[in-house]
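User: Can you fold this complex?
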Amino acid sequence: MIARPTTEQIARDCARELLDTVLPAVQGEAAAVGVRMLDNVLRNIAVRAAHEIAWMTEETAAMEAYARDLLTAMPQAAGVEEALAAVDGAPRAGLHLDDVVETYTRAGEAFALAMEAAVEEGDVALTRRARELLDLRSGHEVEAMADWSPIGR
Amino acid sequence: MKDVKAMPARLEGFLAAVEPGRRAQVTSYELITGGYSRVMARACVVWDDGTTETLVLRGDPPPAETLIDSDRDAEWRLLQALHATGGVAVPEPRWYEANGTHLGTKCIVMEGCPGPQMHSTLTESEDLRPAADEFVDTLATIHAVDLASLPGEMPRPTDWASYLDDKIRLWTDTEAGLPDCNPVLRYVAAWLRANRPPEAPLVLVHGDPQPSNIVLDERRGHVVVDWEFARIGDPREDLGYYLSYSQSVGPSLYSFDPEAFLARYRRRTGLSAAQVNQATVGYFSLIATLSTMATIMNGVAAMAGGATGGTMVTYNINAIGYMNSKWLETSEALTEPLAALRRTAGASQ
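Assistant: Here's the predicted assembly.
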């Protein structure tokens, strides 16, 4: 495995090449907008390659803990116990991306069900904690956007 | 409709079919750019008695290019009803091709309104208040349309509460169609259920009210176009939609003085300060933004399933992250103002 340059470095270099070399040679506004969009996509890829497994692993642990705590407080919360059983059965042994994504998705479902129960019951503390987890998730999404803006519209 | 070389002859054939007593020559045909959902074109016509007129054609894009679906039959019926009633000025609906025989698609043919789009007349530097006042008045006029005058086929919600339930359900239904869980959508849906605003009467809502959909006509004033998303709903949906829209496409006729905007709207409609205020409009801005985002989310879901691809879809993944962030921010900011409204309502009972 050739580790360096990292995937992040390679993707950023491709983005730089696209803007510095390809874009000046492109004719037509529509094609130029397409190149700028591809530059943004490459920078999205760079951020995700650098961090997404770590972010999903971190969020998975926090979401799973939240769902288990809520189930302790509200054993009747609809679907949470079953969703946590699905998390238990997730492919957690390795760090291959498909396995991490599958586990993350199952933990997200358990968390969403638990959070819905907290909001519906008016549990202020658990709702506040859910908001903090959502803010953590959203912060990662914003970082991965890599200065995205709606160009071309 | 997009074939500008073939369309003049096709349109002449259509006009011969709908006006068998006279002949028309199409002297120009050009596509109108700027819209995202429908194919629009403008045509100049000379009739055999020497009269001329400008027509606007509004049809459906090819299925593969359809981003947002809407019902042309329903839009045609509504345009006819609004034109007959006369409360809201709309382009005169002239003819409708329901089967695409001549024009290649279901197509509304209407008068071409003279005058600029309201949006093109707005600049950040000038005093926006007169335009804001007129915009508010137009919204209030739309919302005052007698529901009995609307087409019988138009869906009538049974009551406000179930209507709002359906709107909120769109969030969970959209999320259910995604390849991954999106807890933000689930949270906002739960938040919307837990923070319902005071009820308001159901009215005709335009669904896409913005200055680009208003033509300034010297004789009739504001002529409102693009009725494809019109429905019977909560009037604050239009206000919330415009709030959200104008945050990305300015200048905003709302944001430079929201209190004046809403006060004028209340005077024009008779709705109360508890019903129409910045918090309730903010609530409906959340409701309004999902419709657009659902289209983007469905595209991203299709890509994850291998059904589609392309730079635009990939690029728009960022829009989901952006809106997730905005929805969380907005719901957080509105929680206390909406709770205060409920406390006030509870204290007065």
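The radius of gyration of chain A is 20 Å. The interface with chain B takes residues 34, 37-38, 40-41, 44, 63, 101, 104-105, 108-109, 111-112, 115-116, 119-120, 122, 130-131, 133-135, 137-138, 141-142, 144-146, 148, 150 of chain A (CB under 8 Å).
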